[in-house]
From TrEMBL:
It comes from the Bacteria. Residues 4-108 form the FAD-binding FR-type domain. It comes from Marinobacter similis. Belongs to the SIP oxidoreductase family. Coiled coil: none annotated. InterPro entries: FAD-bd_FR_type, FNR_nucleotide-bd, Riboflavin_synthase-like_b-brl, SIP_FAD-bd, SIP_fam, SIP_rossman_dom. One of its GO terms (molecular function) is oxidoreductase activity. This is Siderophore-interacting protein. Pfam families: FAD_binding_9, SIP.
Length: 250
């Protein structure tokens, strides 16, 4: 299948959602070429680097989609990459190339209860997933944020408990989220899991979900959105190597 053509979008406004989360609203004529119902789908922000160099591409989630606008949320870290620096300095009228959208990553709705886990980079996608759960859904969402001021008000079913984990420093061993998940009372019945976070945290969660809880592949979505100390290219390489290593395990 051919990739969707790139689109040039225009910055409409910038909104500080929380202390470390910045929302950029994009619009423009070419937004009309974006399919409907793309909240939680990913797009690629494209930053040209000159005629002889490949452009930099950074992956982000569509948080909201309206008829003439989309919102893209940026987690702001001390060490900023090209996308977060661009977002921090973006002004109405600025233009940005995007690729995509890629497929939506939604939790399996055929389950008795639901567990969503992630850090601030996954918060936009978790927010969409929570809002799309049935009103009678039960379960948990465990969300790691940088500070208490980064806790957001999220639309979610009444019986899905939100557990906010305050962690100002990234955990190089990836144990912060898995420790909180392990402390949750495990509910009865079939669980569907959606999890995304830093690479090492993803691996720790994956071990717990696959080996300790033996969750079926059909009911488990797990991914890493970034890797501590690495650029997006370095993260992609680590994911490739991790996938190849998994493939050799009998």
């Amino acid at each position: 299948m051919a990739k969707p053509p790139t689109k040039e979008l225009v910055v409409v406004r910038s909104t500080q959602v929380t202390e470390h989360m910045l929302r950029i609203t994009l619009g423009g004529e070419q937004l009309a070429h974006l399919p409907e119902d793309q909240e939680s789908a990913y797009i690629k922000l494209i930053f040209p680097q000159g005629e002889s160099e490949r452009p930099l591409m950074r992956t982000y989630t569509i948080r909201h989609q309206r008829q003439a606008e989309i919102d893209v949320d940026f987690a702001l870290h001390d060490q900023m990459g090209p996308a977060s620096r661009w977002a921090l300095n973006a002004q109405p009228g600025d233009r940005i190339l995007i690729g995509g959208p890629g497929p939506r990553k939604l939790i399996n709705p055929q389950a008795d209860w639901f567990l969503l886990v992630g850090d601030m980079t996954a918060l936009p996608a978790i927010s969409v997933n929570l809002a799309e759960l049935p009103a009678n859904a039960t379960g948990y969402a465990v969300i790691e944020v940088t500070s208490e001021s980064d806790i957001q008000t999220l639309d979610h079913p009444e019986d899905v408990e939100l557990h906010w984990v305050i962690n100002p420093e990234p955990d190089p061993e990836g144990r912060t989220l898995v420790s909180r998940v392990k402390a949750l009372p495990w509910l009865s019945g079939q669980v569907a899991v959606w999890a995304a976070c830093e690479f090492n945290g993803m691996r720790a969660l994956r071990t717990f979900f696959k080996q300790e809880r033996e969750i079926a592949k059909s009911h488990l979505y797990i991914s890493s959105y970034w890797k501590l100390g690495q650029s997006e290219d370095g993260h992609k390489l680590a994911k490739k190597q991790d996938s190849e290593q998994l493939a050799t395990v009998v």
